[in-house]
Amino acid sequence: MGAASPTDRRYLASHEWHKPEGGLVTVGVSQFAVDELTDITFLDIKKKVGSTVKAGESFGEIESVKATSELYSGVAGEVAAVNEAAIKNPAVINQDPYGQGWLIKLKPADASQIEKLLSGADYDKGHS
Amino acid sequence: MTTTHSTTSASSAGPAMPLIFERSVPGSRATDLPPLDVPAGAIPAGLAAAEPPALPEVGQLDLVRHYSHLAARNFSVDANFYPLGSCTMKYNPKINEAAAAMPAFTGLHPLQDDADAQGALKVLHDTRLWLAEIAGLDEVSLQPCAGAHGEYAALKVIRAYFNDPQGGNQPQRRTVLAPETAHGTNPASCTMCGANVAKVPCVNGMVDLEALRGMVNNETAALMITNPNTAGLFDSTITEIARILHDAGALLYLDGANMNAIVGVSRPGDFGVDIMHYNTHKTFSTPHGCGGPGAGPIAVRKFLAPYLPVPQVERRGEPGKHSYFLDQDRPKSIGKVRSFHGQFGVLLRCWTYIAACGPEGLRNMSQHAVLNANYLAARLSGRFEMPYFDHRQGRFCAHEFVTVPRTLLARGVTLVDIAKRLIDYGIHPPTMHWPVHDCLMVEPTETEGKATLDRFIEVMNKIADEIEREPALLKEAPQEAPVGRLDEVAAARTPVLTAALRR
CA A69, CA B434: separation in Å to the nearest integer? Predict the structure, then answer.
């Protein structure tokens, strides 16, 4: 089903991706999730910049015309940035889920933790 | 991500219809107030508004026409088939309203002496006993005023119990488990109560027992389960689930949302439930009132009864000389979750319905709810794929069923297209995308006769034909509703929720 998910990042079965970039980890939602959600209408990031997120903890909510979903982080860390542009215009998540539509950036507590998450191929197996 | 479901509303006020504020003609009045016959009280300084609010000014006829037009646009069970899964949109018999309109009830005041309200207290006491009997549990509180409010009150009761020596002084039991198909209100109520929520995976719509065994420990307070579950299936492992919870010292909570399938047939207390809530609007034909007033009574085993909300309606004295009173003396109670004794007008309708049906009638209600759902599922399963239903293999549903119409969706239509087309045929769309993606969840209820069910089957087949031959028809639906297809994305992204209140 669909194109293979990018292999430059790691995934949760709950459809969040985690990409290491210059000491930070960027978190977003997969193309599969976006296709399932359809038009995203609302993004709420509960965690403020500077607060900490535990692995498996919810950091916000995403809402579409179809459903409302919790957003989870697969890695623990401190929130370094929140995508204000996506909050203002959630359509950007539909348009570019792996790029402009990122959600938060974390300063990971343990840089190796990301390795425990699913690879793109394993993530794709979970929903094909 | 964990996901909660969405429903598609069948109707809404069209752009052509003015708001009541836009009908305002300065100086018009709909009512004449009688002369003041009590001393005029002065409004304390600082509490009075600087100027009167900009309320609409309309004559009585304009007022009546405005709301008559709105009512005519409303999509209701009284007018149309409403198979909205998980919501039990059954017909509410008019006898309920006749009882609720009796002056002896409408003239009551909640602060009236118990001695002057014996009839009303009897209604509450009967309802309490009947709901305990239907649950197979020992005690009931009628105070919570909605299903989710019942969940909240029940979680408070569970916490009070575990914090108490009676419950083993175990304040660390703060984790509540919920299957991944749970109603969204379950985790929400847990969060409101300060509990941690953990999701239990499901296999083929049923709780994964192995996963559950691995998750329970001495921090588990309870598992919140819906049975029959949200996939429309009676979880036949429920007694094993109860054993796993009880062996770990935790409690089994039942979300009573799907009680309409099992009243008089199977009692939650008998299959291991310790505490549960009812939705009287689903099971006992009280009004589905968006946001209330409603009633979400909770039923518990004896060991949880001391923690129930106050007051509790009790009976004292010899039979024949007995009377009813409100017992406020419950030192371990979690206190009040609602003013007075709950939503009396709703509980009265619940009493009326139970009294009118009687035990045999209630069993009949559930049996017909299940029969109707299975009839629809069996007749529709040829063209609408059913992940959990196959009557030829003996896999039946409870009072509702889920279809994931893959073959039809593969032709380029969406569930929303199907939902909107159903509106053209005068049928309310089923619940969509829940508990699984791309599904419709259909719940006919017992109050529909075979002719209506057959018409629904005919319409669903007609829509399937249209998808195969003329899918554009669906993209343009609804044509017959007061307004056409609404731009739900724009409405959600840039909502305009208020009218300017100009004077």
Answer: 12
